[in-house]
Amino acid sequence: MSEHSPVSNLTTEQCWELLHAQEFGRLAFHLLDEVHIVPLNYAVDADRRLVFRTAEGSKLLGLTINDDVAFEIDEFGDEEAHSVVVRGRARQLERHELDALDQLPLRPWVDTAKFNVIAIDVDEINGRRFELTRPWTHLRPPHDHV
Amino acid sequence: MSEHSPVSNLTTEQCWELLHAQEFGRLAFHLLDEVHIVPLNYAVDADRRLVFRTAEGSKLLGLTINDDVAFEIDEFGDEEAHSVVVRGRARQLERHELDALDQLPLRPWVDTAKFNVIAIDVDEINGRRFELTRPWTHLRPPHDHV
Predict the structure, then answer these.
(1) Domain B7-144 in CATH: superfamily?
(2) DSSP three-state, residue B113
(3) Which residues in chain A have their CB less than 8 angstroms from residue B5's CB?
(4) Maximum separation of any 2 CA atoms in chain B, in Å
(5) Which of A124, A117, A73, A77 is nearest to A98 (CA)?
(6) Kindly report the CA angle at A124 between A93 and A77, in degrees rounded to 5?
(7) Is A52 on the interface with B (CB under 8 A)?
(8) Would you call A28 and B70 a contact, using CB atoms and an 8 Å cutoff?
(9) Which residue among A7, A64, A108, B70 has the highest number of C-beta atoms inside a 10 angstrom radius?
(10) What is the pLDDT of residues B81-104, one digit of tens each?
(11) CB–CB of B132 and A109 under 8 A?
């Protein structure tokens, strides 16, 4: 009998379902020779690109210089967690490309001016389901024994 | 009267409080010329390093080749969200350095073999509080008007 693994892979379709269901994730990008990470709101468009808005700043600068990015979403309950990681290429959309996004639920949670729209073309998508042991929710640590 | 900003900075101490209070975040790292991101459990040690366990794999390989990393945690409720972003240097700890970590609440949520301990020396720490507008929780969009 093979040992049960607490980590299993999600199918690509399960990954897309999670990406569609959520609207908040974290973008990792290059800024020159540094790696940076930032939380942001996103949406999935009809071509299965991840799109988000951004103001001018280090994020936009970094993506302009190097379009290689990674993006992560996760969710977890008491018994299990899911995480989806995407790798792809980021590109600032031209004005004429924005009309197609009008129907997209790209709703920034924070009310700041963000005039640029970035789309990530997804090259790789991987998702995992973790069975959470969290032993401390079931056991007292040894030094607590009386 | 200055305009109220929906985004404000956390103090460094508020950032550390959040890092201490949580145990789950996302690590962004270089793997050769790519940026990768992975969710993981972590703890803060007595020297204010972020420590986590990892098995052999691309994460450990990437950190060995390039120690430049970023790390993010976040939490959000209905009205506001917090995010803390750390940048630093990752290093695999030697065996003799591990004893000091015995008391650390470094509790992997998932029961897999992870024999290597990585510590991130924090160079930069930044936190932000976001006031969430989420207008769709208060307003119906125009095309829903009757």
Answers:
(1) Electron Transport, Fmn-binding Protein; Chain A (2.30.110.10)
(2) coil
(3) 112
(4) 70
(5) A117
(6) 100
(7) no
(8) yes
(9) B70
(10) 999 999 999 999 998 888 778 778
(11) yes
